[in-house]
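Contributing new records

If you add data, match the layout below exactly. Sequence lines come first and carry their own label; structure lines follow with theirs. Keep one chain per record. Anything else will be rejected by the validation script.
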Amino acid sequence: MSARVKVIGAGLAGCEAAWQLAKAGVETELYEMKPVKFSPAHKSGNFAELVCSNSLKADRIENACGLLKEEMRYFGSLMMMAADISRVPAGGALAVDRDIFSGFITDKIKSEPLITVKNEEVTKIDPGEYTVIATGPLTSDGLLSAISELTLDGGLYFFDAAAPVVTAKSIDKDKTFYAARYGKGTPDYINCPMTKDEYLAFYSELVNAECVKLHDFEGSEVFEGCMPVEVMAKRGEKTLTFGPLKPVGLINPKTGRDDAYAVVQLRQDNMDGTLYNLVGFQTNLKWSEQKRVFSMIPGLGDAEFVRYGVMHRNTYINSPKLLDKYYRLRKNGKIFFAGQITGVEGYVESASSGILAGYNAARLVLGKPMWEPDKKTCIGALPLYISDEYITKFQPMNANFGIIEGLDERIRKKADRYNKIASRALELVKKQTEERL
């Protein structure tokens, strides 16, 4: 039997890392503090709990996150297996039933003979052990202290927020309509159109609503990709109408017109279609204020909120200074990091880092060359970006075509250009993974 590897954290990244290790024949200990102890945002005892949203973003390869998901399939991604059996309607996006999704991953991990699950909080790191640290953006204070001691770096912090969820039956269908923006995909989103007067009244209450008082955390910097709706609104009266409430491309089939001043979209949150979340409505408003203000949205006057939005601290390390291109600690060749703690931002990106950290840890203990990331692929461009030592002001990074190597030829139409980049990436990943363990 090969050397044992410890994986800390059973979120998306940790589960993917443990899965890759086990499939390579490496005995793995997976440490998860739930249900002994919960973070401020987690509620379920299952692994790979989706907290912020049930969407895994775009499902087309001309979108970088869609490409990343296809690349992950070549690695036998556990997340993608779960997504395939828990998918719910979401137009051109891939959204899942949270409970089925996390339940599937939990069952797979617990039934894998080479993975031993230990439900306990880890507060110390042995620098002599092969370890993958995948504790996510809500790393406990005890482990965070150990990480700081290990890295001799204080880390960076920002705040993240989750959107509220309402019951489908409480949505007034007379005031809403089903449609997908620009007609892409099936019309799965429920759209709440607002007139200018309705929007301005809503806007006024939103920017003046009372927020939850934050704890005295370090560096309360809000990440642009997951900004609370009230913070975004305070940037200007029309900011939301060019952001999550933009009305363009949404034709109301009841009127045949697209003349709404603003549109709030609701996305299906579970497979049964009984729950919907407010797209782009991550928030730190007090729960009573959420009920009062969000009920002003047409169609949500009598909405039943089954989950209110919450805001919590996210933590990520200074990866350009600390990690190499293998997601490995530069100063300790046995310690890997994975997930949002590395500064990759998003469910899919987090899982992809877990795949590579687990795969590379397996290669290391088996005495084989680690996987070399290639900038022509999305799964390779992410670790190359976050480990770039020239980055001095590090911010979390989503999958995007800006970090993937472009083409030698000029293709004017963006969709065609991205499709060609994606096809090249998939061919390369296919070739690389055919030479796996």
